[in-house]
Write a structure and sequence with these properties.
With 513 residues, the chain is an alpha/beta fold. It is 40% helix and 19% strand. The strands form four sheets. Strands 1-6-7-8-4-9-10 form a seven-stranded mixed β-sheet, with helices on both faces. The model is unreliable at 1-12 (pLDDT under 50).
């Protein structure tokens, strides 16, 4: 399998048409001593739209690097046929590589195909031997690549994604986000038969997200996608390869798009929990039987005072045998079902529905919020706070929490109201060792669980889905619907906004300069 350079957006291989595919069999990889991928099978055909999902650290990016030939697995095989373009999360800016170098590389197959067509046309005009077949092959390749429109497609993508269009600009002079948008525009404009994208929504604004979603949804070629953007996955993916833990340790492949994945995953998780609970209950029953038999051996079997010695001796072996039988049953009952991943539980709470809790009247903070805002919260209220970055969403939640005093207006609580806020930034507490938190997702989950355990009357959540797995997002959103607390969420997460479209919304205004 060919390998790419650090900047290369594509494997410049020949088109394979309907035979284009990317296939991994039995992929196993254990960096260090920790198993990361175990016996993974995956196939992306010429028409597949496959999303790879899983918690942070589950091996999504590693799997993409193995499938695209840039990392060797410990076991398994990889094969591919057809043109393949790749957009990783990071793009190094080494040397003097320019924007033009990336765009030229993206359309190089089309440029080469058009040059071959011109040569074949000249040979055909000269009536050279075999020129008709050569021309037919060259024309067919140009048609497969849609070569005549390649440059225009890249230009459209650069503009739609808000990318730098100056071909002379060195990549080293661009920000991380600018470099990413240039490279994403190149791979989208190249229209390869197989497209591999790792977190493509990073660094995109709303217009860029809309363009990316529409482009991928309309795409006819194969797609392999890793993304934390649930809305993108819901709109684009037809199949889901789930790398999260399972009862047998194997990844799961779900069809039926977003709904099929969520339904299938929930069904498997419920079955896993039921099997685990049943096995644990049986193990406890057997342990209790052993304890009871042992108790009878020491005290319970002993006959009343005055019973002849031979009667006592005749009963002892039977009690011992009963204990051994119970111990054998316990030892034979192996615990084969691993514990399922913990669920995120949202307490129902005890807040009185409709009871006035908090009023913020025309509050604003100089330099941090664009316009005064009024919020009134009662038990069971729901509110989505939306607006552009920098408009003051986080500031409003900090004011409602009482952690930040407003420069205008006032905040008043009605009685002994418990208020809890989850901020965007997750910092270990003073009594915690930062080394105990292996990933941002783990720290986020612990912070959220701690806030929920307090069972507040007013729950303020600032971008609560950041770094959370989609399974935990489901748990959170479902639980919030039944909470008696007043819940305020500030978010830009498109899928959360869809799921909670029935909640009232507060638009906080324009971003500050």
């Amino acid at each position: 399998m060919p390998r790419t350079s650090p900047h290369s957006p594509a494997h410049l291989t020949a088109p394979a048409g309907d035979r284009a595919h990317l296939r991994g069999r039995g992929i196993t990889h254990a960096p260090g001593s920790r198993p990361l991928l175990t016996d993974v099978d995956v196939t992306v055909s010429a028409t597949t739209k496959l999303a790879v999902v899983g918690e942070n650290g589950s091996g999504k990016t590693t799997l993409l690097r193995i499938l695209t030939g840039r990392l060797d697995p410990d076991a398994g095989s990889v094969e591919h046929a057809g043109t393949l373009a790749i957009a990783d999360q990071d793009l190094p800016a080494a040397g003097d590589t320019t924007v033009g170098d990336l765009t030229d590389e993206a359309i190089a197959p089309a440029v080469a195909a058009l040059a071959s067509l011109d040569e074949a046309a000249a040979a055909l005009a000269d009536a050279s031997a075999g020129s008709e077949d050569s021309y037919a092959r060259a024309l067919d390749l140009c048609i497969q690549l849609d070569a005549w429109d390649a440059q225009r497609r890249v230009d459209i993508a650069l503009d739609a994604l808000g990318a730098v269009t100056d071909r002379d600009r060195p990549l080293a002079h661009l920000s991380v986000g600018q470099r990413y948008r240039v490279r994403l525009a190149c791979v989208l404009g190249a229209q390869p038969e197989l497209l591999v994208l790792d977190e493509p929504t990073n660094h995109l604004d709303a217009a860029g997200l809309d363009f990316l979603t529409a482009t991928l949804a309309a795409r006819s070629g194969g797609l392999l996608l890793v993304s934390h953007d649930a809305a993108l996955l819901a709109d684009v993916a037809h199949e889901f390869l789930d790398l999260d833990p399972s009862a047998d340790g194997r990844p799961r492949l779900y069809g039926g798009g977003w709904d099929g994945w969520r339904t299938g995953r929930a069904r498997e998780r419920d079955a896993w929990q039921s099997a685990f609970d049943a096995q644990q209950a049986e193990h406890r029953r057997l342990q209790e039987a052993v304890d009871q038999a042992r108790s009878r051996l020491t005290t319970g079997w002993r006959p009343d005072k005055g019973t002849p010695r031979h009667q006592r001796q005749s009963r002892a072996p039977g009690v011992v045998q009963a204990l051994h039988r119970r111990e054998d049953e316990l030892h034979r009952h192996a615990l084969t079902v691993p514990p399922p991943p913990p669920r995120l539980t949202v307490p129902t709470g005890s807040t009185q529905p409709g009871a006035p809790l908090l009023t913020a009247a025309e509050v604003a903070v100089t330099g941090r919020s664009s316009h005064p805002v009024t919020v009134r919260l009662a038990g069971g209220d729901r509110l989505l706070v939306v607006g552009p970055n920098g408009a003051g969403k986080s500031t409003l939640l900090a004011v409602l929490d009482g952690d930040l005093g407003p420069d205008e207006g006032a905040v008043r609580t009605h009685g002994a109201v418990r208020v809890q806020r989850l901020s965007q930034e997750d910092v270990p507490e003073a009594d915690e060792d930062p080394r105990d938190h292996r990933s941002p997702g783990q720290l986020r989950r612990q912070r959220l669980a701690r806030v929920l355990r307090e069972e507040p009357d007013v729950l303020l959540l600032d971008e609560p889905t950041n770094h959370l797995s989609m399974a935990l997002v489901d748990d959170l959103l479902e639980g919030l619907e039944t909470s008696s607390a007043a819940v305020v969420i500030a978010t830009h997460d498109r899928q959360v906004l869809r799921r909670l479209s029935h909640w009232p919304r507060l638009e906080v205004g324009e971003a500050l300069a």
